[in-house]
Amino acid sequence: MSYNAAQLGSFRIPQIENEPMRSYAPGSAERKRLDDAIAKMKRDLPFDVPCVINGQEIRSNQCGKQPMPSSHANHLCTYHKADTNTVKGAIRDAVAAQAEWEAMPWNDRAAIFLKAADLISGKYREQILAATILGQGKNTWQAEIDAAAELCDFLRFGVKYVEELYAQQPPKNSAGTWNRVEYRPLEGFTLAISPFNFTAIGGNLAAAPALVGNVVIWKPSPAATYSNYLVHKVLLEAGLPPSVIQFVPGDPEVVVKEALDSRDFASLHFTGSTSVFRQLWKQIGDGVGEGRYRNYPRIVGETGGKNFHLVHKSADVTNAVQQSVRSGFEYQGQKCSALSRIYVSASVWPEFQEKFLKEVASIKVGPSEQWENFMGPVIGKPGFDKIVGYIEKAKQEGGEILCGGSADDSKGFFVQPTVILTKDPKSITMREEIFGPVVTVYVYQDEDLDKTLDLINSTTDYALTGAIFAQDRAALIKTSNALRNAAGNMYYNEKCTGAVVGQQPFGGSRGSGTNDKAGSISLFWRFVSARSIKEGFVGLDNFGYPSNLV
């Protein structure tokens, strides 16, 4: 199909706002719809998830399963793993489709993603939420802010940001000339490797490069396969040409290897662990050194965090407590932004301890589809074992378990919210990412604030999120300045989780990633290659310079 369409207007996209979040109040129609969707999904599972190449379903002889973390004897779906030939074909056909996709008029490309957002907001909301609740262990609120609100926001604000990007043009033109810049997609394909913990991130890792004309090979996390498959189906229903985003579940040894071995590899869009990201970077670097790729690949990655709350002596303790409970234990601490370490001033520690432990002890833990549970299961057996192992290591180092510390994987992967008090600010649970419902507290003497700021800044390799709780404005300014490079997202008297698209661009540096700020225009610059164009209207009569005259 040719997109040689007339451009007969300068179109402006509709006004973009954040997707309203639903409360699912008892007795509400929205709660009933979600309950019905969950019940239906439980009746119909397990689902069969193919690779989707050029819009066609491809099934292989090798399959994997996505267990339900609340009830791991059951699985939400069986997915077909792409083999080498499938991956090669997906890459070949995506690259072949790029010229037409790039040539599609911007307003038509934008309309596809705006329509996808509306489909997610309405027609498919409950189905995608149910898949996220059952498959990824999120309670309703966590699923709502992720798989409905944030996913819609990524798509809609993405369109807004690309419109703004395309409007960035040279401010000056010499007499008789017209200067302009076009923002070309990258030559080749983007490899999108998405995580289990956010359905919205999966959608955005694939959609953001595609918005600016790129083609994408999307490898979903095995633990989020079904929800990601549904998102891909929505994109196709919205009108996305079938070869633009290829849905390629499978083993990294196959999918990633084939992608990084391809001369057409143009960029990596990644969210996951720091260790995996570093390994991928090395593999790409080796390819660059060998001259394997047509261009220098763009690498965009958001990885781990060892995020902190600093509770100053002037803090509103009740607020600091409530914010810490949420950020430490919502979604079982399985957010890259989750609170993991708290530094509390000694003068407010007794009040903070009493209130914090009381609130943590009240947290209900159980299957994520049950409305009363604030916490659900952790994602799987490897994560469960890792979390339990860190709790044991903390005990061996002399850490005191103030709350929780127990776990049960007999039916689901449930870990009780755990609070550890340490006297060693560089103990293992203050340094290393756990990715679970474990928060470690270090109490510092009021007069040692400067030393504590140095500790926060130097204890870990990460620099993703952090929060300062202080009513003293001078103290807030001082601590924020001292911790300028300790977090890419800093919060004052707010928890360190919950960045909203269009409000708090998200990302960190150091071991936490490339800080390209998902949810902002910054991200889209990474997936374009600008071309400057100068057009002359008046010919040159003589090649000589004025200074040559004598």
Using the alpha-carbon principal axes, give the shape.
globular
Overall pLDDT, averaged? 97
CA radius of gyration? 25 Å
Structural class: alpha/beta
* Helix count, DSSP H or I runs of 4 or more residues: 16
Low-confidence stretches: none
Estimated helix fraction: 25-40%
Describe the structure.
By secondary structure, the protein is an alpha/beta fold. The protein is 39% helix and 21% strand. It contains 16 helices and 23 strands. The strands form seven sheets. It has a seven-stranded mixed β-sheet with strand order 14-17-18-13-12-20-21, with helices on both faces. The protein is globular and about 85 Å long. The termini are far apart.
Task: Please write out the topology.
Layout lengths: L28 H16 L2 E3 L1 E3 L2 E3 L4 E6 L2 E10 L3 H20 L2 H16 L3 H12 L3 H27 L10 E9 L3 E5 L5 H13 L3 E5 L5 H13 L7 E3 L4 H10 L3 E7 L2 H17 L7 E5 L4 E5 L5 H13 L9 E7 L3 H13 L19 H16 L3 E4 L3 E2 L5 E2 L2 E5 L5 H4 L6 E7 L4 H10 L3 E2 L1 E5 L3 H10 L6 E4 L16 E2 L10 H5 L2 E9 L14
Parallel strand pairs: 1-5, 7-8, 7-10, 8-9, 10-11, 12-13, 12-20, 13-18, 17-18, 20-21
Antiparallel strand pairs: 2-3, 4-5, 6-23, 14-17, 15-16, 19-22
Helix pairs in contact: 1-4, 2-8, 3-5, 3-7, 4-5, 4-7, 5-6, 10-11
